[in-house]
Amino acid sequence: MIDHIGYPVSDLAASRAFYEQALAPLGISVIMEVTEEMTGGHGAHLGLGRDGNPFFWIGSGKPAATGVHLAFAAPDRAAVDAVHAAALAAGGRDNGAPGLRPDYHPNYYGAFILDPDGNNIEAVFHGAEAS
């Protein structure tokens, strides 16, 4: 089980604005800020999460040379749709519209968006929709 994940971004303010809007449909927001002074000159960092748990971190610095793929669990298909729409409205680029991905498994419903640094952000729901 992963406790938290983080990676550097090229523009912390732009990425903050993107992730705050894109992840709002999942109840995820900035809940912790660490300044450059607090890290002793090792960059500023933002902890996003919910219920007081910062499980997703972004920080100032040089982004990785290759893109990161990070999937956020959604409670239903409507939330996947909402994350995709919010991420596009926040300036993300479509990398796969919401829909079933039966090659993964019959109920895999996901959407993919590229963040400001080109990282592949996904919202996914694994359950069957209620009829």
UniProtKB/TrEMBL annotation:
Q: Which GO terms describe its molecular function?
A: dioxygenase activity
The VOC domain sits at 1-126
The record's listing under InterPro entries reads: Glyas_Bleomycin-R_OHBP_Dase, Glyas_Fos-R_dOase_dom, VOC_core
List keywords of the entry alphabetically: Dioxygenase, Oxidoreductase
What the entry lists under PROSITE patterns is as follows: VOC
> Gene3D superfamilies per the record?
2,3-Dihydroxybiphenyl 1,2-Dioxygenase, domain 1
What name does this protein carry? Glyoxalase/bleomycin resistance/extradiol dioxygenase family protein
Q: Which organism is it from?
A: Paracoccus zhejiangensis
